Amino acid sequence: MKFIFSFVAVCLALTSAASAQLIVNGETVAEADRAKLAAAYGPVPDGQYWYDPASGFWGVIGGPSIGRIIAGLDFGAPMPATASGGGNGSYTGVFVNGREIHPEELALLTQLFGYVNPGRYWLGANLVGGYEGGPAEFDLRAAAASATGGAGYNRDTLFGGLMSDGQCSGYLHPGGSTVMTGNC
Fold first, then answer.
1. How many C-beta atoms lie closer than 10 Å to residue 79's C-beta?
2. Sheet bearing 138-139, strands edge to edge
């Protein structure tokens, strides 16, 4: 499986000019690890990001997920509940892998499922999840396919395009950066 990834220009605009380092989940990434990331995914701009090692989703601190890379990378620090701006349950009331999700993510999930119960959920790298401690109860990939009337979809979002053909999923940034995962 080949992953193509490049951090997008929106990340540069949202990061502090005073930042001179790469920070993931509140911890500075060592230069050796940063070099490995750059070799695998392309240049990684300075800034503060969150990363969910269980699902592979990532974003700028305080914001929604804006991309997905390989799951299971170890940045040494756990993803904070406050990564997307909430954390105490009053923001959206929906936690995925410990992170209170951003309102934009809740709106997308509500569009897919009709209603999202406040609570704590797990989500795996295969995009299947359920309530914390419970069995799998939903499949994001299947829900997206069902919502669009077939195995594939193309959807424009505030941050770019989302696509899937049922085997391969991707994020397409208007500036040209792309993330692809699955059997592409």
1. 23
2. 99-100, 94-96, 119-123, 128-131, 138-139
Contact 131, 90 (CB under 8 A): no
Show the beta-strand stretches assigned E in the chain: 22-24, 27-28, 47-51, 57-60, 67-68, 94-96, 99-100, 119-123, 128-131, 138-139, 153-157, 160-164, 168-172, 178-182
- pLDDT per 10-residue tile (average), the chain, 184 residues: 32 43 94 89 91 96 93 91 95 97 95 90 95 92 71 58 70 68 70
Our CA angle for 127, 142, 9, nearest 5°, is 55
Measured between alpha carbons, how far is 144 from 121 in angstroms, rounded to an integer?
18
Q: Which residues contact 26 (CB under 8 A, 6 or more apart)?
A: 77, 80
Task: Specify the 3-state DSSP secondary structure of 66.
Answer: coil
